[in-house]
Amino acid sequence: MNQQYPSLLLERAVGEFSKLPGIGRKTAMRLVLHLLKQDDAMVENFGNAIVTLKREVKYCKVCHNLSDTEVCLICDNPKRDASTVCVVESVRDVMAVEATQQFNGVYHVLGGIISPMDGIGPSDLEIESLVERVKAGGVKEVILALSSTMEGDTTNFYIFRKLAPYDVKISVIARGISIGDELQYTDEVTLGRSIVNRTLFTGNV
Amino acid sequence: MNQQYPSLLLERAVGEFSKLPGIGRKTAMRLVLHLLKQDDAMVENFGNAIVTLKREVKYCKVCHNLSDTEVCLICDNPKRDASTVCVVESVRDVMAVEATQQFNGVYHVLGGIISPMDGIGPSDLEIESLVERVKAGGVKEVILALSSTMEGDTTNFYIFRKLAPYDVKISVIARGISIGDELQYTDEVTLGRSIVNRTLFTGNV
Fold first, then answer.
1. Using CB atoms, which residue from A17, A27, A73 is nearest to B6?
2. A205 lies in a domain?
3. Number of independent structural domains in chain B
């Protein structure tokens, strides 16, 4: 006497949803029942958006971000400053930087981070293509925006060495205490670095 | 300088996912990027499962549960006891009862609960069809398994009155302290009811 689904279609849809990360069978059921309550067009759109995305999306040949076309919308946008390249680990990090609305340059997606423990070396990442991009000229500044971890620091250093021969400014995003953090709860490494890397107080926050 | 998606297909897929309840844009992005990493067949299956479900699923004409066919798999299963009908509010409740693996009868899905505050009266629910089902004969027991709320009690009472003329046993699921609960943290109404409705101790748990 096992749990029985009244409908195989329902069982299949719940099964597919529960394959997603962080979604168990209960949540999957909730989502499927929600979709059943929507109108047909909305559900068709949902299904099609996913299938079409997987079928048609490719990687931008300039920055290796996801793209519908040979060159992605960000690289292709004439309003964006192509001379400032922000180096990130993944597509998700591009979205995180975009969400800040503080950056108007372009990106370079490494597709990972140097991590000997996971067997990921420089040749597995889009580092050579970054060097080529700088070599080709037109890039004035490379901003390293990787995670503040051992692997991130290693990757930063590797890229720094690789780009050293070229006339390009290399910067790294600021590390320090988070906005809203209280000093007494900040770990000593972060606090120590934020003292060493203090900036001039200008009255603006 | 708004947040810019590098790909319209990506933006569309994230948008569709974030329409689901409890899924914000960050989670949507995580799910979409996960799907992009899977192979094509898996993603096609996912999209098709949803579209097909919505297009083809119907309601069982006997119990009003979701079904692929005129009569659902539970009603159609000869191993299940069709003389015991468990009355529940929704499809989700059917799955909850099924998950207990303690019930081998069939269901009747009301599609809601009597709630004057929300403008839901008996005629909006599948109560008349329940009466017809009992009237047609073959049902020995109706188990009322609705929520233990004011609305649930009202609906129980309404159904009880409607079924009174017929020769059918009407029972209600036990209410009492939850398994694993400590007495001191149980609310007094539940505790009071569990004392009034005490059962004979047989040594079995």
1. A73
2. no
3. 2
